[in-house]
Amino acid sequence: MRRTSLAAGIVFFVFSLTVIAASWSLEYYSFIGPGPGFFPFWLSLVLGLLSVVWIVQILRSTPKSWKGTGEERLFPRGTALFRLLIIVGALCFMIIFMEPLGFQLSMFAFMIFLLIVLGQVKILTTLIIAASSSFGLFKVFTMLLDVQLPHAAIPFLAGIGL
Amino acid sequence: MAALHDLLMGFSVALAPGNLLYAFLGSSLGTLIGVLPGIGPAAGTALLIPLTARLDPTGAIIMLTAIFYGTQYGGTITSILLNVPGEAASAITCIDGHKMALKGRAGAALSIAAIGSFIGGLFATIALVFLAGPLTKVALEFGPVEFFALMVLGISLMMGLAGKSMVKALMMGILGLLLAMVGMDPVRGAPRFTFGRMELMDGLNFVPVIMGLFGLSDILENAEESLDSTKSAKVGSLIPSREEVKDSVGPIARGSLMGTILGLIPGMTGSMASFLSYSMEKKISKHPERFGEGAVEGVAGPETANNAHANGALIPLFTLGIPASPTVAVLMGAFLMNGLIPGPFLFKENPQLVWGVIASFFIGNVILLILNLPLIGVWVKMLKIPYSILFAVILAFMVIGAYGVENSVFDVFIMLLFGVLGYVFKKFDFPMAPMILTLILGPTMERSLRRSLEMSQGDFSILFASPIAAGLLTASLIVLITSALRVFPGTRKKVPSGSGSDRRK
Q1: pLDDT tens profile B292-336
Q2: Which long-range contacts (CB under 8 A, 24 or more apart) does B244-247 make?
Q3: Exposure pattern of A26-63 as b/e (b: 16+ CB <10 Å)?
Q4: CA proximity to B310, closest of B328, B329, B336, B330
């Protein structure tokens, strides 16, 4: 936990340095007052200083005070990590395939995958929920609520109404 | 009297059939969000913003505010029946509420909580009606300098009260401000940190950011544990005994006052209001040993306080344009998306809308009382949906919600990115409320400050030239210093934080 927190402090510090560097490319000050780069520069500078304060706090803390906050408590391993990655992976799938396959087909696959792999839900229940969350919600949102969800970009799929 | 006249005009708007329907839909959806574990009020309200995209601004705001205060009612049901808070503000109710349920008094606990929430909500709304005039009168005198100072005070209070570490709260606040800088510069129109992407030209959309930080991060955290659902206690009779009613009168009265006052202070969350109410009731009780064993005062006080807080938190938003909590910040975003700038000018330029929305709070609270007492069985049935199904359905709605704001897959990516970031922030115990507040207030704050500096041709002393601004900035400094002093002496002990966030709230 202590080492991971230190690493996080360093990440924040590096991030603030990057924003400081990026702010330099923007106009800092003009005759009418601060330019677009003024606030990002000062804010990232303060963020950098705060990261240093946090790092110092971690370094100054006694190892005893970290007892009971082991590395295993911070990020999961094994099955818990697998479940987490499944959700992130499924969302990545949606991001990549929502436009080419259309909302209905991609959401149907997304729901089936999550409910079977993660939820371990029975096949019939899975199919009903997946169909209502994909084809059903598509109809509700596009026809009743006027929220546009993507149709498939692939002509064949678009042709059959997906 | 002018306030009452305005309120009557508001009722003529709120009682229009369409607006009544939106208040009903908002209250029902809010209760549902409160009932369902895995989605809190901020993410829930953000998630439902696309539903209101095609409504007229009055209907959209009536529905979204009803969702917001409806979540406070719904959260109680799971606290009492399952010992799992539907949202953080109802967490303290688990202690005595669930004990009452185990003794077969769940129905009485739910009734007292619903009646307390109703009275608390009404009390705070009446306070809004009478405070609106004087507060907007003061705020109308404000120029960009004073508004900037007011926003600094709001953010300082939020940072001072958020989390255990002042440094982390400040880091998150600044991160939110930096994220608010993405997009076109509000004064000169120059693109900043857009990485050449057209989607970022208008800035980061707050809806997918909030859904990621508050909604997806919760689902990811819950996914670490098995996805089994919990067994609900039986509701039983809804009618409280005479003794229970007698014991609840005082806590409800005190909870209404305390919640409304705390709602006015940025950074004071609903959970703080319910926790403080619980502590106060225990302290002044003649039988403090009953607390933790199913004392009805431990349900009545906190539940009244959190609902009074929810409605009270709308007072600074409506009158000054300052959101007091992350969910109110989401509402502020919804106002902005509808082309409305919350604050004193809204009362002047759009009185029908403002008073219509305020009047709808009275109606919404009555609807919620009906939804939570005679219709309690419907919500109990909802609790039977296993989390192994619920999480996937919530994810499906999140994808639609994120996509629906701008019809862009990029926003789904932003939701995923901030979901993962939110999960990591929770692990390190970084408070997310300051980040959301600064993300939404950032552009207005920068615009106010840069306009002030343009007026003074870059001279920063303009910030202290106005006595109001000087007073507000001094107060901000005092808040930050006292909060820092409160934290720093114990630094050596306080740094370790671990993954201390609530599980399956």
Answers
A1: 888 999 999 999 999 999 889 999 899 988 888 888 888 988 888
A2: B244/B105, B244/B108, B244/B112, B244/B296, B245/B112, B247/B295, B247/B296, B247/B297, B247/B300
A3: beeeeeebbbbbbbbbebbbbbbebbebbbebbeebee
A4: B328
CB B311 within 8 A of CB B27: no
For chain A, where are the E strands, in sequence order? 29-30, 33-34
DSSP assignments along B277-325, one per residue: HHHHHHHH-S-GGGTTS--THHHHHHHHHHHHHHHHTHHHHHHHS---S
Give per-residue pLDDT as tens, A73-125.
677 888 889 999 999 999 999 999 999 999 999 999 999 999 999 989 999 99
C-beta separation of B123 from B260 below 8 A: yes
B498 and A69 in contact by Cβ < 8 A?
yes
Q: How far is CA B51 from CA A135, B43, B425, B450, in A?
A: 18, 14, 29, 35
Which long-range contacts does A23-28 make (Cβ < 8 Å, 24+ apart)? A26/B190, A26/B192, A27/B188, A27/B190
A83 backbone dihedrals φ, ψ, rounded to 5°: -60, -40
In whole angstroms, how far apart are CA A151 and each of B198, B294, B395?
22, 54, 20
**Both tokens of residue A68?**
């009971």
Residues B265 and B272 sit within 8 Å (Cβ to Cβ) = no
Q: Does B22 touch chain A (CB under 8 A)?
A: no
List the structure tokens of B20.
């009544």
State the Cα–Cα distance between residues A24 and B107, nearest whole angstrom. 63
Give B-chain residues touching A119 at CB under 8 angstroms.
227, 386, 388-389, 391-392
Report d(CA B411, CA B399) in Å as an integer.
Answer: 9
Do the chains contact at A73 and B404, CB–CB below 8 Å?
no
Contact assignment for A29 to B428 by CB distance below 8 Å: no
Picking from B194, B228, B451, B495 by the largest number of A CB atoms within 10 A of its own CB, the best residue to mutate is: B495
Return the structure tokens found at B400. Answer: 């639609």
Tokens of B417: 């990115």
Length of chain A, in residues: 162
Find out whether B362 and B122 touch, Cβ atoms under 8 Å: yes
Q: How many CB atoms within 10 Å of residue B249?
A: 12
Q: How far apart are CA B121 and CA B114, in angstroms?
A: 10
Dist CA B445 CA B467 (whole Å): 19
For the entire predicted model, the pTM comes to 0.84
